Amino acid sequence: MSIVKDLIKNLPKELQQIIEDYMWEKNTMGWSGTKVFKLTQDKEILYLKINEPTSDFNLEKEKIILEWLAGKLPVPEVIYFEKKNNTEYLLLSEIRGIVSHKTSKDEEKRKNITILAEGLKKIHSINPSECPIDNNPDKLIELARARLKKGKIDSSKFDKRWSDKNPEQLFEELEKIKPKEYDLVFSHGDYCLPNVLVKKNQLSGIIDWPYSGINERYFDLGAVTWSIGYNYGEEWVKFFFEDYGIEDIDWEKIFFFQMLNEFFQQ
């Protein structure tokens, strides 16, 4: 509780006033360095994200995207944003629903797969030319190269498929299988089951947008493929592609973007 008190003391004054009567609960889900707190007052729930940005992906970009997506997709409402002393504060409304990885029943898994596919099709249907943020793969490769040179990549966190490689070796492999052309769409950037909310067997919301922007379709397909395999099992992946509508799956592209993602998800 003392940690929360210290946090509250350092919040921007306006933010303190907005949330002064709320109860705090730390959200331990997720692997990023962003601190997330669930704030409750009576029946109202808000989420506060606190982050000290160490890369091009930050809460300010999430704010920009969420404001742009308002009315286009079921996303949280931005209630407050501020950057103070190199720390970002983003206060968001709650979206009611259950994160789609929280089920052990096959029937629910199958329904959730359909919801995941429908949600991603909705995201990819938005006109990318209007998107305010560009995360095209060439830009991401250069950001990954910069992070590699700064020694920011921890190979112990790599997926088991390339756990035998050091960061330099994985980057070399990445460059070898780089796609020759891109299918650019508006991308979520971290489309995984914990970021998709379900209510009454329907999509209720999509959260966590700091990695979103113009990107390759397969960046999202690579993320959701891995997430389905991790949470449900590899045998469920085929149903996602059936529902999304892809018969000829480019697995090399999927591996490329899953490799590329290793340079940012830590």
Q: So how many helices? A: 9
Q: Supply Rg.
A: 19 Å
Overall residue-averaged pLDDT value: 93
Mind describing the biggest β-sheet? 5 strands, antiparallel
> What proportion of the residues is helical, as a percent range?
25-40%
- The total strand number stands at 10
State the end-to-end distance: 27 Å
How would you write the strand order of the largest sheet?
A: 1-2-3-5-4
Outline: globular
Secondary structure class reads alpha+beta
Instruction: Give the percentage of residues in beta strands.
Output: 15-25%
**What quaternary form is this?**
single chain
The parts where pLDDT drops under 50 for at least 5 residues are none
Order of helices and strands: HHEEEHEEEHHHEEEEHHH
Structure overview:
With 266 residues, the chain is an alpha+beta fold. Helices cover 39% and strands 20% of the residues. It is built from 9 helices and 10 strands. A 5-stranded antiparallel sheet has the order 1-2-3-5-4, with helices on one face. The chain has a 3-stranded antiparallel sheet with strand order 6-8-9, with helices on one face. A two-stranded antiparallel sheet has the order 7-10. β2 and β3 form a beta hairpin. α7 (217-231) packs across α9. The radius of gyration is 19 Å and the shape is globular. The protein starts with a helix and ends in a 5-residue tail after the last helix. The mean pLDDT is 93.
